[in-house]
């Protein structure tokens, strides 16, 4: 039986400026923002949370992201994409049953970009973010790369807001909530599992990060 464990990954960094991260602060100062994503192994099928950048960002970021790649520059190797990192720890993509999308910005859709390699996965996202990502306001449109997630075959399972969240397997290991924040309807998550390589259980909880909108794990 597969242990319930959490693995954290980093899909390189995005080189940008502080003033594009926090409006008009630290003008002109560069910053490198790490791009995290997560895997929770589970006996009923692994849960992948986001997936970093699309693999094309390792070789042709301008071609895949367009002009936004000149302001927000992805720096990653081919090995830092989602699939190579899963395979490096012996995870068969066919054993991933759930892909959770915290939201659909370009640095979170790396798994969807290669969705055909996850033949048994469904995708959980908030309905509000799904609908917005398909028709974003003009000023945020560059942050959504439709080539990653607007295509046939993706098995969406869209979530409505609830008070007590959505328990992915009904066992409390991963529970999702819709909250406002970085996006109007970010899908936040909490995982109760064991960090990979550790011997004791720890719970994790969403932690405001950077713009106060992404989540990070305190367990690992
Ligand atoms: Zn975002």
Short description:
This protein is α/β, with parallel strands linked by helices. It has helices at residues 18-21, 61-65, 68-71, 82-88, 127-134, 146-149, and strands at 5-17, 30-41, 46-49, 73-75, 96-100, 122-126, 156-159, 166-167, 174-179, 186-195, 201-203. Mean pLDDT is 86; it is low at 197-220.
Overview features:
6 helices; disordered C terminus; Metallo-beta-lactamase, Chain A; 11 strands; eleven-stranded mixed beta sheet; alpha/beta; binds zinc ion; 220 residues
Q: Could you describe the 3D structure shown?
A:
Strands 1, 2, 3, 4, 5, 6, 7, 8, 9, 10 and 11 form an 11-stranded mixed β-sheet that branches. This protein has helices at residues 18-21, 61-65, 68-71, 82-88, 127-134, 146-149; strands at 5-17, 30-41, 46-49, 73-75, 96-100, 122-126, 156-159, 166-167, 174-179, 186-195, 201-203. The longest helix is centred in the middle third of the chain and has 8 residues, at 127-134. The chain has a single domain (5-205), classed as Metallo-beta-lactamase, Chain A (4-Layer Sandwich). The chain is of the alpha/beta class and 220 residues long. The two termini are 22 Å apart. Bound molecules: zinc ion. Zinc ion is lined by residues 103, 105, 182.
User: What is the C-alpha radius of gyration, as a whole number of Å?
Assistant: 17 Å
CATH domain class name: Alpha Beta
CATH structural architecture = 4-Layer Sandwich
Q: Give the count of helical stretches.
A: 6
Low-confidence stretches: 197-220
The overall pLDDT average reads: 86
Domain module count: 1
**Structural class per helix/strand content?**
alpha/beta
User: Largest beta sheet, briefly?
Assistant: 11 strands, mixed
CATH homology superfamily: Ribonuclease Z/Hydroxyacylglutathione hydrolase-like
Secondary structure: helix percent: 10-25%
Instruction: List the ions, cofactors and other small molecules found in this model.
Output: zinc ion
Specify the overall morphology. Answer: globular
Q: Distance N terminus to C terminus?
A: 22 Å
CATH fold naming: Metallo-beta-lactamase, Chain A
Record field, number of beta strands = 11
